[in-house]
Amino acid sequence: MKVVVVGAGIVGLSSALRIVEDCGTAGLKMTVMADKFSPNTTSDVAAGIWCPPRRKMTEREMQWLKWSQEYLTSLLKTPYAPEIGVFLQSGWIVWMHADFQDPDWKDLVQGYRHPTKWELTHLFPEYKDGFFCTTFMLESRLFLPWVTNRLKDRGVKFVERKVQSLDELSLDYDVIINCSGVGAHDLVGDTKVFPSRGQVMRVKAPWVKHWMLLEGKHSYIPGIPYIVGGSNSTLIGGIRQDGRWDLHNDPRDTEMIWKGVTAAFPALKDAEVLEEKTGLRPMRESIRLESEKKTDPLSGRSVQVIHNYGHGANGITWSLGCAKEVALMVKQLLQEKSTKSRL
Ligand SMILES: Cc1cc2nc3c(=O)[nH]c(=O)nc-3n(C[C@H](O)[C@H](O)[C@H](O)COP(=O)(O)OP(=O)(O)OC[C@H]3O[C@@H](n4cnc5c(N)ncnc54)[C@H](O)[C@@H]3O)c2cc1C
Ligand SMILES: *[C@@H]1O[C@H](CO)[C@@H](O)[C@H](O)[C@H]1NC(C)=O
Ligand SMILES: *[C@@H]1O[C@H](CO)[C@@H](O)[C@H](O)[C@H]1NC(C)=O
Ligand SMILES: *[C@@H]1O[C@H](CO)[C@@H](O)[C@H](O)[C@H]1NC(C)=O
């Protein structure tokens, strides 16, 4: 069975990884095809905090989150965890409103609690509520190159190419896995997908050991600044622009980030700037993860498409869980195929 994964961000590479691990490589020939690879994907821009969105979860979404946690837990216990960007970090998200229902996933992170009085008074003055917890970090910058090498070792081919339409692939492959992120909007249009542009800076501030995300309108802190301690640098940001597609670092956004972050955390005023990056979060009302049979209009050949895109502002969090469901779908296709060939 010939499988092509379109997309080499965290969603595409996690899918490829879990297919190879859960289905084996016997009877499977896999290609990863993308126009951008690490370090040039949106996934490389992300901070990498494992934190789901703060809304009601469906049962299926809870399952993805659990699968993702299970996989990260197994990685955490390997000797190479730090090299592949997997570690734990604690931190706070705080906001301006006081009525908040604890999320369904609160027991999937460790030590979930509301901020203490001291924290709200001294660390986050004016903010009304929020939460603190310990959770995984998954840094794509380190994880994606590791997955790539692991897949190459298992015989997976990597091809740099922009795919204009599904029809280009339906003659050469039996299964197409669509992990094109915000690119799904263009690939003949899922118009439900739109970008939320983010810009970040990496700075040298090795004393930052927590993540802190501040939300809401504050009297002297502009924007929605955040800081995250990475394994080799500190990430700062605070840009969320819905509907904006351009990928260059905008000096106005640089200034906005700097003003917000230094107003909230004056100790960062003299931090050396190492790098700036911009990425597009693939927003959608919900993740599209489903299988669809298509027939090539010319040859009449049928091909299975598995869609896995639209992971929004939390794709690092979802990726390894959604990837397990993709692997289960591929496993079933392999079984059907081997049953058929025995008939
Ligand atoms: C500033 C910022 C901070 C973030 N922080 C976090 C965080 O802390 N935690 C978290 O969980 N999430 C975070 N996110 C969200 C996360 O980055 C995304 O949800 C995730 O990266 C989406 O992954 P993806 O693989 O779907 O997309 P991408 O990483 O964008 O990958 C898409 C892939 O598809 C390929 N592609 C697209 N169209 C085509 C085509 N037509 N032909 C060929 N190839 C194509 C691209 O080349 C690329 O390889 C953050 C995002 C931003 C911008
Ligand atoms: C990433 O983008 C830069 C600048 O466009 C390019 O020079 C580099 O080759 C790209 N890297 C990969 C792995 O594609
Ligand atoms: C990916 O999904 C989008 C939205 O349904 C679709 O338009 C596009 O053709 C798909 N691309 C591939 C390569 O399957
Ligand atoms: C860590 O950061 C330094 C610069 O501060 C850089 O020289 C080094 O290559 C980085 N190491 C990794 C593994 O990214």
From TrEMBL:
PROSITE patterns hit by this protein: DAO
Q: Which residues form the signal peptide?
A: 1-16
**Binding residues for FAD:** 42-43, 163
Q: Name one GO cellular component term.
A: cytosol
Q: Which residues form the FAD dependent oxidoreductase domain?
A: 2-327
Enzyme superclass (EC): oxidoreductase
E.C. numbers? 1.4.3.3
- Extract the GO molecular function terms from the UniProt entry: D-amino-acid oxidase activity; FAD binding
Which reactions appear under catalytic activity for this entry?
Answer: D-valine + O2 + H2O = 3-methyl-2-oxobutanoate + H2O2 + NH4(+); D-serine + O2 + H2O = 3-hydroxypyruvate + H2O2 + NH4(+); D-dopa + O2 + H2O = 3-(3,4-dihydroxyphenyl)pyruvate + H2O2 + NH4(+); D-methionine + O2 + H2O = 4-methylsulfanyl-2-oxobutanoate + H2O2 + NH4(+)
Where is the protein localized? Cytoplasm, Cytosol; Peroxisome matrix; Presynaptic active zone; Secreted
Binding of D-dopa, residues: 226, 281
User: Which Pfam family would be a valid example here?
Assistant: DAO
Q: What is this protein called?
A: D-amino-acid oxidase
